[in-house]
Each structure stands twice: as structure tokens, then as C-alpha cells.
């Protein structure tokens, strides 16, 4: 398994031929709302050309469920498994009403995809 830091809280796991992204934030969209919270680490734009098989969105804050980033992976495409907490799940389905597998992924939920098992646990922000 290969693990790559995407910046902010984002991680990418590559395992069993699958690309799994967690909270990809590859823009500076938060800066438009809160200028003091500008991006400190530049984006590696090569990440935007990848085709993730699975995207996990832990919650609906802009630096975790970023429409500017997600459009690269979900707009006009199909077949991505999106595991998202309740509020992120509602938001991302409205923004990208394409043929993806949107799964509400709240505390206590488990999902197995291939040889990888995902379990949602409680976390404090």
C-alpha cells in the first residue's frame, strides 16, 4: 500500500489497483470566504489528473468537501464510490448528480470494496 499526503487533511491510498482519496482539497477556495485561511502548501496539480475509484468525505467543511476539487473527479464522469458523512453526502449528490455510488457513511457504517474494509468512527473536529 502506498500512502500520499495531498495537502491539508487529504490523503491518497493506492492499494490493490485502486486509488482512494480522503478529503481531497486541491484548491484555495476557503481563501475566498476567509482570506486569513489561505492555502500554505501549494497544490500538486498532477493529483487533479488522477481518476480515484473511491472518495471519502469526512464532513462538509469546504476544506474537506470542496466542489472546486471534486469537479475534477465527479463532474461528467461515472462510477466513483463516494463514502460521505450525512451533510457531505447531501451536498455532493446535489452538486454532482451523475452516475456515482453515493453511500451515506456515518459513525457505525462499514463498507467493503474489494479487499479493503472501511469503517466510519466518531471523530471530533
Q: What portion of the residues fall into strands of 2 or more residues?
A: 25-35%
Backbone shape? globular
Enumerate the spans where pLDDT stays under 50 for 5 or more consecutive residues.
Answer: none
Widest sheet, order of strands: 1-2-3-4-5-6
For the secondary structure, the number of strands is: 8
Helix/strand structural class: alpha/beta
**Main sheet specs:** 6 strands, mixed
Annotation keywords:
globular, two-stranded antiparallel ribbon, six-stranded mixed beta sheet, 125 residues, alpha/beta, 30% strand, 8 strands, 3 helices
Molecular structure report:
The protein is α/β, with parallel strands linked by helices. The chain contains 3 helices and 8 strands. It has helices spanning 29-33, 67-74, 86-95, and strands at residues 2-7, 10-15, 18-22, 54-57, 81-84, 101-104, 110-113, 116-119. Strands 1-2-3-4-5-6 form a 6-stranded mixed sheet. A two-stranded antiparallel sheet has the order 7-8. β5 (81-84), α3 and β6 (101-104) form a beta-alpha-beta unit. The two termini are 27 Å apart.
Amino acid at each position: 500500500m502506498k500512502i500520499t499526503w495531498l495537502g491539508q487533511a487529504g490523503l491518497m491510498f493506492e492499494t490493490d489497483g485502486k486509488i482512494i482519496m480522503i478529503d481531497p482539497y486541491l484548491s484555495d477556495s476557503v481563501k475566498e470566504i476567509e482570506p486569513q485561511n489561505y492555502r500554505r502548501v501549494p497544490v500538486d496539480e498532477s493529483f487533479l489528473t488522477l481518476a480515484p475509484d473511491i472518495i471519502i468525505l469526512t464532513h462538509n467543511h469546504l476544506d474537506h468537501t470542496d466542489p472546486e476539487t471534486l469537479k475534477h473527479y465527479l463532474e461528467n464522469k461515472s462510477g466513483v464510490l463516494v463514502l460521505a458523512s450525512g451533510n457531505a453526502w447531501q451536498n455532493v449528490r446535489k452538486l454532482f448528480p451523475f452516475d456515482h455510488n453515493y453511500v451515506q457513511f456515518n459513525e457505525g457504517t462499514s463498507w467493503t470494496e474489494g479487499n479493503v474494509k472501511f469503517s466510519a468512527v466518531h471523530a471530533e473536529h
